[in-house]
Amino acid sequence: MERIVKRINLAYYLIYTITILATIVGYIFTSMNENTVDVKSQLSINLSSFVILYILVSIPAALSIFHKKTKKWAEIEDNYMKFEKYAIGATWRLLAIGFGLVFSVVAFYIIRTESMIFCAGIAAIALLFCKPTEGKIISDLKLEDSEE
Known about the structure:
Layout: H1 2-32, H2 42-74, H3 79-111, H4 114-129, H5 134-140
Helix pairs in contact: 1-3, 2-3, 2-4, 3-4
């Protein structure tokens, strides 16, 4: 089980690393080039609408679908298959939510509105709920401590 936690943690921390890199690149790019997109332009409205809509749909959908799938995976007899399906599902959940985080940061540096910071904050908090631990895996898959 420790191997599964490490595998999911790799995706988890990779998302935060990409977010930090996007922040650094965005900061450097905007500090060298002070031109920003007008907040009232069609590009700004479309981009912010897309990011907000993505955040509003992806977070509840990813959490809900993963929760429903864990109920099915808990019924699998083969522990190897159960852990593999869990690891793949958890990674996809992280990617779905993490994309919103990275995209919000990138959108912030393009259009410079505080709503994109709020979207990034919401996605970052949602990612905290997805942080993999052995206890969470045991709970999700309804495992006994003796089955580890």
